[in-house]
Amino acid sequence: MRIILITGISGSGKSVALNVLEDAGYYCVDNLPPGFLLELTDFLARDGYTRLAVAIDARAGSSLANLPEIVNGLQGRHEVSVLFLNASTQALIQRFSETRRRHPLSLSSGHPMHGQTSLADAIESERELVADLTLFGHQIDTSNLRAHNLRAWVRQFVEHEHVAMTLMFESFGFKRGLPLDADFVFDARALPNPHYDERLRPLTGLDQPVADFLNAQPEVCLFIDDIEGFLRAWLPRFRADHRSYLTVAIGCTGGWHRSVYIAQALGQRLAKEAEVLVRHREIEVLDGQP
Question: Taking every annotated instance into account, which residue ranges of this chain make up the domain RapZ C-terminal (predicted)?
Fold first, then answer.
């Protein structure tokens, strides 16, 4: 049976991800206590189900600590993938404010100390509670993602879940913050910037004039060569460590020109070394607005 466990920080989009998996033909269960996961899996397997998606988060309380052991037990009998959704505290506070929903770790209204735990404190407490789960699977930082972007990224995850290792290149802009899902971050801000050329400013790193400009810069070529060399040297070790996903983030100031071009170039160069995905956070999120 293929099993996808969705976990992470409350408010980071687990419901959206679960809906995507339901549309993909998975039997979906939300807020399942970890202790029932083995029993549910056995029950569905006997009934002939081949795909299961389960959302488990801080609502499971102290039993969440048993999830790593349960995942290890399942991996011996089933294909298990873990999707960890994360978001910045600022983004989460805004989402909870807009929806007017309570955080699951907030004190109940009947508690004598009701009101003394802030939303920010509840979020940080949850981060500590689920921190160990980030080691088990692929992270997606939803801080700046719209719902349709998240749905597309979850579909990519589903399509590549059976691959031995997926190498993800993600471009981003530092002015909108570091991606929380990155395993490695490379800073391209010291490279020549097409933004200062009025002809290139409205374009992106996906456009040929920008690519031609950057390809003609020796520093850019050296930057790409160095990252490629590092990854080629260490990919075998990451595979030996049973890593399913490796996310390499390339950042420039706006995430519009240099980082986009470099992510594309690295994806092309390393396409034969692993299953490669390339994402451009700012272009995808802003839908054409630099």
Answer: 165-284
Residues 22/28, Cβ–Cβ less than 8 Å: yes
State the Cα–Cα distance between residues 151 and 85, nearest whole angstrom: 12
- 95-113: pLDDT as tens digits: 988 888 888 877 544 433 3
- At 195, give phi and psi (nearest 5°): -55, -30
27-30 β-sheet, strand order? 27-30, 51-55, 2-8, 79-86, 138-141
Unique residue bearing structure tokens 């451009």: 280
Which CATH number fits the domain that encloses residue 125?
A: 3.40.50.300
Q: Show the beta-strand stretches assigned E in 45-137.
A: 51-55, 79-86
Total domains, the chain: 2
Q: Would you say how long the chain is, in residues?
A: 290
The verdict on 79 and 7 lying in the same domain is yes
CA distances from 260 to 163, 176, 210, 211 (A): 25, 15, 10, 10
